[in-house]
Specification:
single chain, about 210 residues, mainly alpha, two-stranded antiparallel ribbon, 5 helices, about 65% helix
Length: about 210
């Protein structure tokens, strides 16, 4: 794949470059990562709360609408994030990382990119095939039409199962991803996690640039 050009000359004030470098992630990748991560975790929590049997019907309806709204937002962010990830430079692996660890990290990253698109799409399919045909009001600003799909109880049940399965799979991979990041940070003490934390990454970059100038 053709990569974006070099990042020199596009570093905003504070030393954080917009694009990835060979040693760190840029601001665009970091913002995409943490924004989608927070929204995705909120979706998991909303999905659990709105499916409880004891929940008030009015509250349940509101939670469904929030769940759909955030889902469309995740989808809107995930598509450009996938494009950015595919065509942008990939920071090199940290020193001493095994081939197995590198493969696992890349596989988990690819799976999460796929799931951030697939899970909300499956949720959109649920809303589109439901016989209830409840409009999807995205943050009470716009109504998103349903996908051109067959409307039936069977179709809704199928896509509900797909949506739930993909969401549970995403939750498992996210948990493994977090555990791996903490292992790198606390046990190996390498810069893997620091590269995705804006303030720490910017500090590390400044130190590297200062060292290279000396």
């Amino acid at each position: 794949m053709q990569e974006f050009g070099d990042n020199s000359g596009i570093a905003p004030a504070g030393g954080r470059r917009l694009r990835n470098t060979s040693s760190s992630f840029g601001l665009v990748a970091i913002v995409f990562h943490w924004t989608i991560a927070i929204l995705f975790l909120a979706q998991l929590a909303l999905g659990y709360l709105m499916s409880r049997d004891s929940i008030d019907p009015v509250l349940q309806f509101d939670l469904f609408q929030y769940h759909k709204s955030i889902g469309f937002l995740v989808l809107a962010l995930a598509i450009p994030r996938c494009i950015w990830s595919v065509f942008s430079r990939k920071p090199r692996s940290v020193d001493g990382e095994s081939i197995v660890s590198r493969f696992a990290a890349r596989a988990a990253h690819a799976a999460l990119l796929f799931l951030t698109v697939a899970v909300p799409l499956a949720g959109w399919a649920v809303a589109s095939t439901s016989p209830l045909q409840i409009p999807s009001y995205v943050f009470d600003l716009v109504v998103v039409p349903g996908l051109p799909m067959t409307i039936s109880d069977q179709a809704e049940a199928f896509w509900s199962e797909v949506h739930a399965t993909l969401a549970y799979l995403a939750a498992i991979i996210v948990l493994l991803h977090v555990m791996a990041a903490l292992w790198h940070h606390l046990i190996r003490r390498d810069p893997t996690l620091r590269r995705m934390l804006p303030l720490l990454a910017a500090t590390d970059n400044s130190r590297r640039e200062t060292s290279s100038e000396q």
